[in-house]
């Protein structure tokens, strides 16, 4: 279904509201009625765009996968140098500091809550994490090609180390409400990447 | 309320069932009726031990906090040498491999699902993570005292780096259903700890 520009804006407004509510209250704590109210749209309008809560959640995941790796940041350049990776880590830590540890990564919440339960949603989450991993993988690949990283650097391992650090940091920072876990996790992962420096 | 030995065994059976169901289906996907059936107890019996679903969940968290850091492992010795830390990491990776990435850490699921929502549960989770962090902190402290780690090793940072690696690895392994994220996260975190070796 092709949407008009106005329709597209309404759909985005609904997704914005759903993303924020899920990050704050989890999927189970968010009803379509909450989303409808927060977005300021009528019930029939919401169901015009998303015919079920599950369709809405899948759209949140898909859109989150296209977001830059750090919430609140504008478009992110290529992560293809130690400086760019450090800037990315600093932005993630600052995001947690700014929000008192309530950083807004709804994917972390979604993976914790839905990962084990719902097969279709799990596949969407795999695609989302896969897209983020490949952003890191591409940047590290460029660094290896350029000679910044030694040939034995394992791009799969290093990109996973950075992504798990971001997710583990996010999960603990969210629970403990301080940025310390995010800072420790990303410092360790980046140091590991640097240990393969040429 | 002091429990008889039989009462204690019934309570443990209920908690076993609840822990397993939550790890598999999340909190929202687990009803007290599911727990009652899986534990094979009557409804009035369940409410004798836990007067609400929330009381049951809090007891799951408290008990999980007392479990060894890697599910499925018997009592864990002190994590106070590089060998002991490596054995701990290997056990966590093997646990994920054995379960095809469906490792059974219900705390990861609980933190993802409830961390942002429920203040009392969040505090229980903080205590649980705090206890795990202090196990790591104690072990690393002994290593620094013995001279295995250099004096400038920051025990708070290193223990958080290991704990976030465990949680991030668990979250991603659970979603992607492979042990690769757990292996990458713990390899990176342990390498960071080793970089402070004397």
From TrEMBL, chains A, B:
Top-level taxon of the source organism: Bacteria
Q: Which PROSITE patterns match?
A: HTH_TETR_2 (PS50977)
Q: Where is the HTH tetR-type domain?
A: 8-68
Keywords, A to Z, come to: DNA-binding, Transcription, Transcription regulation
Q: Which InterPro entries match?
A: Homeodomain-like_sf, HTH_TetR, Tet_transcr_reg_TetR-rel_C_sf, YxaF_TetR_C
Query: Could you tell me one molecular function GO term of this UniProt entry?
Result: DNA binding
Kindly indicate whether the keyword DNA-binding belongs to this entry. Answer: yes
This protein's name: TetR/AcrR family transcriptional regulator
Identify the DNA-binding region of this protein by residue numbers.
31-50
